[in-house]
């Protein structure tokens, strides 16, 4: 694991670094992660490390195996395909409802997060995967909130795995990330126009594009 220099040592600080290293492949799937090793890397006690590992297990970045320890979570091709199947069905319906129910202040917040993503740039060496993923997550959370469909949102939250979304961003080319930005901008336009059919269609295209990135990555790594 990469030595951490000048990084805070709270559980949240440790989580942020590990999320980015897992997503970027610095810590590959099935790599073993120990409290002792992380405490030494971050120059801290095992208490914040233990809390960080607990959070990362809950988020799906790590898995815990009794009598073996904690490992970077791996995802099968079947699991990933199933997650994208659910996203296509549920998230497009959420976008459709959001177009009917979104409030002006929610639309303004959405534009703020999209602008923040665009300021990070689209060249691989110029952007932070963790920050891009965080702003993207907030953007999509606003769509869920605006839908006023709590049951659908719970279904989506149960299905969507943050590590998969974040690892997709880490593997986007500049043109693919630019396309994602265009989808977000078109979603904003559809919401502003209060056009449910337009919003559903753009969201389906957005998720299908991300799915193809994941499929390409699996082919290249196999």
UniProtKB/TrEMBL annotation:
Domain called HTH gntR-type: residue spans: 8-75
InterPro entries: GntR_C (IPR011711), TF_FadR/GntR_C (IPR008920), Tscrpt_reg_HTH_GntR (IPR000524), WH-like_DNA-bd_sf (IPR036388), WH_DNA-bd_sf (IPR036390)
Pfam families: FCD (PF07729), GntR (PF00392)
Keyword DNA-binding among UniProt keywords: yes
Alphabetical UniProt keywords: DNA-binding, Transcription, Transcription regulation
GO MF annotations in UniProt: DNA binding; DNA-binding transcription factor activity
The protein, known as: HTH-type transcriptional regulator McbR
Protein species of origin: Oceanibacterium hippocampi
């Amino acid at each position: 694991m990469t030595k951490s220099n000048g990084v805070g040592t709270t559980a949240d600080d440790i989580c942020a670094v590990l999320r980015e290293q897992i997503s970027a492949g610095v810590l590959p799937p099935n790599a073993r992660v120990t409290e002792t090793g992380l405490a030494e890397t971050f120059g801290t006690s095992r208490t914040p490390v233990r809390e960080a590992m607990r959070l990362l297990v809950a988020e799906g970045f790590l898995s815990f195996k009794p009598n073996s320890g904690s490992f970077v979570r791996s995802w099968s091709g079947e699991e990933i395909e199933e997650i994208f199947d659910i996203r296509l069905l549920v998230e497009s319906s959420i976008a459709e409802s959001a177009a009917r129910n979104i409030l002006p202040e929610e639309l303004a917040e959405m534009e703020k997060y999209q602008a923040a993503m665009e300021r990070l740039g689209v060249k691989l060496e110029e952007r932070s995967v963790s920050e891009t993923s965080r702003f993207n997550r907030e953007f999509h959370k606003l769509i869920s909130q605006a839908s006023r469909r709590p049951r659908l949102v719970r279904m989506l939250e149960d299905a969507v795995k943050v590590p998969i979304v974040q690892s997709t961003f880490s593997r986007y080319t500049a043109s693919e990330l630019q396309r994602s930005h265009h989808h977000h901008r078109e979603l904003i336009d559809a919401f502003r126009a209060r056009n449910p059919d337009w919003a559903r269609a753009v969201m389906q295209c957005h998720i299908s594009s991300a799915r193809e990135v994941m499929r390409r990555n699996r082919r290249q790594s196999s």
